[in-house]
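Work Package 4 report. The design task specified in the project plan requires that, given a folded chain encoded as structure tokens, an amino acid be chosen for each position. We show below one input record used in the internal validation round.
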């Protein structure tokens, strides 16, 4: 979809929707459950670690950086199982679009990465980055993430389940 913004009657600027590049992490433990954190800014809403990809950063480095920032889990305690072949794009609800990223992005385009947690739960520290993202965390079955995530991301999580359900069994 293209948006037409008229600056003055004689000039029309055409803009396409911009999506923030993002790395998402499906972190599996030895019981094939996944890590979810409860968002500090939205109590009751849980999600898997994810965040923006910096300019010049590759997907793997972005994923490990986000994992460390949001969970305290370092590169030595996680290994990549698989990187999804396709990206998932979603639009933010209007009320969030205006608040986040100064309204620059319409939503996110996410590349999801399945990782195996090789460490101990005592390594998990939600306060390694400011501002912190999560208030608490838990391990859950992959399919249970659908009932925990905010409604506007349920389609995204349904696709994630399809992409990585073979790992969860």
């Amino acid at each position: 979809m293209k948006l037409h913004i008229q600056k003055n009657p004689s000039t029309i600027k055409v803009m396409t929707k911009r999506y923030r590049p993002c790395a998402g992490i499906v972190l599996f433990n030895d019981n094939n459950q996944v890590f979810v954190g409860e968002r500090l800014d939205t109590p009751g809403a849980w999600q898997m670690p994810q965040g923006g990809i910096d300019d010049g950063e590759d997907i793997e480095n972005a994923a490990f950086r986000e994992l460390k920032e949001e969970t305290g889990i370092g590169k030595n305690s996680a290994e990549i199982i698989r990187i999804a072949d396709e990206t998932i794009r979603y639009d933010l609800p209007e009320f969030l679009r205006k608040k986040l990223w100064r309204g620059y992005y319409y939503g996110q385009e996410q590349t999801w990465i399945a990782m195996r947690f090789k460490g101990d739960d005592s390594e998990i520290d939600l306060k390694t980055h400011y501002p912190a993202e999560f208030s608490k965390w838990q391990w859950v079955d992959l399919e249970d993430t659908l009932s925990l995530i905010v409604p506007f991301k349920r389609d995204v999580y349904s696709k994630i389940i399809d992409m990585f359900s073979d790992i969860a069994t």
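The beta strands are 2-8, 11-16, 19-28, 34-39, 46-47, 50-52, 78-83, 88-91, 107-117, 134-140. Validation will be extended to a larger panel in the next phase.
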